[in-house]
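Design request, tokens follow.
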């Protein structure tokens, strides 16, 4: 069954600085929506608003065309992989999986993912940063939410984990929708079905990668694939 997530009339400001002004974004299950933008344009702020941990000046969020009136309920429909590692460092990987993932089939999917079997008895603090970020990604991916926000999943991870993340996005998007942002724009272009750029307080749809030069996100010398 296809599900939809619609954000309308989003406005937000910090002090006297406007971050978003009456802007919108939409995602459906089966889609990966890539969000690009320069530092300070509001990418992480957008995700915190959608997850319900930051209250905007105004927002209308619809799940399957039904208005979700309480922002505290946003995370009932939306999972969030933040930039920071939020995993308890003293727990073993197997303990984390048991605590966060209650569904047996979902737990098995994590254990069968590349490399997890080799580290299941390790404590999180003993894992490399790339392993920690990949583990956190897998945990969020296997929650029951229909939509997932991924904030810089490709940052500070080696190429192997980038490839694994891309493979999992393709595998899981049959029944989930993803909104993803990262400064590694080529990785975003590689996985996204649709692309948008945050600029001038708006979320602007981008029809082709060359538009990123026209909109001032990339220089004319940038190589676009």
């Amino acid at each position: 069954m296809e599900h939809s997530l619609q954000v309308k009339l989003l406005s937000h400001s910090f002090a006297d600085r406007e971050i978003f002004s009456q802007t919108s974004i939409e995602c459906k299950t089966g889609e990966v929506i890539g969000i690009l933008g320069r530092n300070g344009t509001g990418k992480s702020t957008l995700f915190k608003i959608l997850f319900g941990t930051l209250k905007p000046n105004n927002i209308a969020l619809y799940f399957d065309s039904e208005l979700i009136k309480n922002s505290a309920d946003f995370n009932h429909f939306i999972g969030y992989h933040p930039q920071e590692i939020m995993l308890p460092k003293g727990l073993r990987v197997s303990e984390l999986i048991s605590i966060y993932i209650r569904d047996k089939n979902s737990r098995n999917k994590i254990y069968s993912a590349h490399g997890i079997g080799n580290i299941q008895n390790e404590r999180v603090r003993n894992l490399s940063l790339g392993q920690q970020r990949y583990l956190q990604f897998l945990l969020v991916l296997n929650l029951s939410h229909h939509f997932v926000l991924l904030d810089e999943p490709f940052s500070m991870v080696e190429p192997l984990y980038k490839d694994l993340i891309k493979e999992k996005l393709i595998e899981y998007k049959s029944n989930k929708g993803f909104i993803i942002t990262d400064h590694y724009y080529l990785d975003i272009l590689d996985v996204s079905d649709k692309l948008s750029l945050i600029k001038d307080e708006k979320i602007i749809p981008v029809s082709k990668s060359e538009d990123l030069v026209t909109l001032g996100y990339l220089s004319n010398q940038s190589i676009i694939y």
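Comment from the thread starter after seeing the answer: thanks! The CA atoms of residues 57 and 198 lie 18 Å apart.
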